[in-house]
Amino acid sequence: MDQLLFVWVEKFRNIENVGFNFSNRYEINYKKGENEIIVNTVDGESVLKEDDVKLLFNDEKHYLEDFFQIENKNNVTISQICALIGKNSSGKSNIIDFILTAISIGSRNKLQSNYILVFKKDNELCFFGKTNNNNLNTSTLICLNKNVPKIEPDKNWVSMFYSNVADNKEHIFNDSSVYNYSFNKLNELQSNKIDFVSSIFFEDTWKRLNTKDSPIKNVRFVFNPISFLRIEKANDLDERLAGILKRYRKAIYEESSSNANRFYYGLVINLLCFLYESKLDISPILQEVNLVGSDGFAEAIRILHPKVVLFLAGINEMDSDTLKKDEFDSYKNLINQFSLKDEDGKVVVYNLGQIDNYNNSILVDFNDDFKKILLDNQIAFNNSSLITHDWSQLSSGLKAYLNLFSQLFDLSSKVTKPNNQNILICIDEGDLYLHPEWQKNFLNDLIWFLEQIFTNINIQLLLTSHSPFLISDLPKENVILLDKDCKPDRQLNQSSSFGANIHQLYNKQFFLINGAIGEFARIKISNILSELKYVNKTTLEKYEKLISMIGEPVLRIRLEEELQKYVKMIGREALIEWHKSQILQLNKEIE
After folding, report:
1. Where are the transmembrane segments (predicted)?
2. Phi, psi dihedral angles at 421 (to 5 degrees)
């Protein structure tokens, strides 16, 4: 299977003269002075055979091709998975950023120093990059005294980047051939959530993520009419426009008994406000509106609303940098959906679920009625300058899971060209925000989902994480540990990789330098131990209580033994009292 095997970087951020092996089969080293790579198996055996022109791999019989498959569905092959594990600022994200920048056409010129990317394509050794300060066209690479052939990776691989990290980091492969699903792109990609929920894959995914002993929740979306909310905060509004806003707010959030009406009213007033923000002349509708009473409200919603809808229907063109004509037309069609009539000439009534009382948001059920509304109007939800939406009433973990799956689903709908048979999927801390139970299931769920949504494809996964659960799911050759200087280590012990006990992993120095308990508790217990030598009759009860609170039994017994040693120094009477307290404690534990 085609794979990215190795990357060497001369200088990129905190990466300097470092090579990274991403295959669990091969160990590749680059000799910069000779501009030569040496390729062996991870066990140090020779792996290449030569013909007159090519350098071919000769180890197929030693490898489990289907190791990362679960159902082997749709002819999807997960050919390789590599996890970059490191502490904050170790350079995990930088490695991914570099690889995707080098692969993508639009950003390569940002890489000034030398670098190489080594691939296996059709069982042949290939490379791409810059060597000896040459340009991409004139650079060469040697292996076994032969020139390694060059390839254009963007023509052979589709690349994707996904991140759960809300750091607003600007990845330098932006505006390039990489499918960028970073956190700061989520608003632009918000319609992907609805596309995923509308798909045939969602129901099985939803059941998988909801445990058997928990009730299945309704999927709800929260919508925010953002133009309306912005204009409300503006100063010096025309009094009639201010009156319209007041009336719509009262109708939407206080008086409406129908969730569908709330949604409909929100769409209408939001478009009117967007037109106002876009400097369109809305004076014709303002002249038609009357103010009533002394509080500045416009006339009743049953009179006001038809006037506003009629005004919006008459606007066919608008000039806005943030709204294309098809988006504008789709949004108007979405509004018109609520005026459609059935065969008997009655206006269709939609049920969008119960009303939840929020001041600025409208929650709707993702049900059959909402799907009918969406059917011809999905494009209206693509433009975040008009309306934003998100999953509603979900835990941060479930939301993170669904965000990842919805973006992967979007990628699967785009990867349809016959020549795009290889995908490099880079996921930066995809298990962030997940409950430990979901962290434990993360890799298994990810592979399962990829097998559902893709067809006839070879996938290579590059993952970053802080989680020891990921190490437990991967053979040691599939894990790269990064130190603080972004130096890689692939020499995990056998007990620290595939199938390893999570408690063993937490006790490895890489994860927790000062043990597997919270830092506050560690410091507190250390202080207790150092203070026991000063125990006296007055403080004895205090330290007895502190030690009894410790949940780890071996540690608690060790401290009790230490306390007993110092109690003996206080005197016979104190020792007797101490033994009595120990007997009482044992009786409580037995009961």
Report:
1. none
2. -105, 0
